[in-house]
Amino acid sequence: MQHAVGSPLPPPHQSGNGWSPAAQHPGPHHPGTHQGPAPHQGPAPHQGPAPHQGSAPVPPPPPAPGFTPPGTPSGPIPPAPPHAHVPPAPETTGHVPLPPGGPVGMPSAPPATAVPDPATTTLAVLLIGPAGAGKTSVAKYWADHRRVPTAHISLDDVREWVRSGFADPQSGWNDNSEAQYRLARRTCGFAARNFLANGISCILDDAVFPDRPVVGLGGWKRHVGPGLLPVVLLPGLEIVLERNAERTGNRRLTDEEVARIHGRMAGWYGSGLPIIDNSQLDVPQTAQILDDVLARSIASPPKW
Fold first, then answer.
1. Using an 8 Å Cβ cutoff, are 228 and 124 in contact?
2. Pairing, β 275-276 against β 201-206
3. CA-CA-CA-CA torsion sign (259, 261, 246, 291)
4. 158 near 187, Cβ under 8 Å?
5. What's the pLDDT tens digit per position in 236-275?
């Protein structure tokens, strides 16, 4: 079973010029139509007497000043109408509507007598949890098995788009790592709004700390909108430590750091957000529980 990627451990909150189309080429010359004198190109170089080929045709003289050909309507010539903007047809290849300026609103709750089906509703979900909770695995599985188009957006993946100059939070949480985290979160939020504007659901995953409001849940709400449905994935500490031990590279954290993250994540208890303890659940079972939790969240959105 694959598990979520590592996440930063921030300190607790403390007080304190354009183009123009090329000119059209003139059409073929019609006798009797004035097209203006040809540009002067100077005398041709002397090449000796040319062989006799007969007399060249003489073009008709230009019309006299003030002459109006028969059939020309009188009065001033109206200006050409401006080119109106024609929106592309819906089936135009590559036409993608952009999200509106406002944030994403809450999904419409079904009638009280109906049972909401999150599998067929366009949703924006934020899956929260510590490193090793299984966020990424559950988010991918949930997105893969929905009956409507769904995207998975991982903040850790977007954060690591920075290759040169990447501020690794494991080396110390500082101004650079926090700035890159904020930039990644804003990028994820805009991507989510783009997907939703085109009828594609999305699930984002991030290790959001309840005691860090500056880079916490409020930022996601600003970037995506009040329609974002947060769900906390929080297994027991022993499960998180076991899953972290299976990792390699810089995604593996020390046991002490995992314990600190897990302890801070426990602050979500009592917050009013739905919490799933997946200590004894595999990925498909957790995704099923997630659907049940989202159905209740659609019917009665959490206050956050």
1. yes
2. unpaired
3. positive
4. yes
5. 999 999 988 888 776 788 889 889 989 999 999 988 899 9
CATH class of the domain comprising 124-299: alpha beta
Residue type, position 7, single letter? S
Q: Tell me how many degrees the CA angle 33-37-42 measures, rounded to the nearest 5.
A: 150
By the 8 A CB rule, do 138 and 1 touch? no
Please name which of 292, 301, 7 lies closest in space to residue 133, comparing C-alpha atoms.
Answer: 7
- Angle between the 135-144 and 283-299 helix axes, to the nearest 10 degrees? 80
Q: What is the largest CA-CA distance in the chain?
A: 106
- Selection from 155, 149, 100 nearest residue 129 by Cα: 155
What does the block give as tokens for 280? 């004894």
CA distance 290 to 284: 10
For 183, counting Cβ atoms within 10 Å of its Cβ (0-12 exposed, 13-18 middle, 19+ buried), the class is middle
pLDDT under 70: residue ranges of the chain:
1-95, 99-116, 213-215, 250, 304
Q: CB–CB of 118/294 below 8 Å?
A: yes
d(C-alpha 32, C-alpha 92), whole Å: 45
Per-residue DSSP letter, 234: -
Distance, in Å, from the CA atom of 115 to the CA atom of 299, rounded to the nearest integer, reads 8
Domain locations along the chain? 124-299
Q: How far apart are the first and last CA of the chain?
A: 32
Helix (H, G, I), strand (E, B) or coil at 88: coil
Distance CA 196, CA 238 (A): 37
**Any idea what DSSP says for residue 56?**
P
* pLDDT value, residue 16: 41
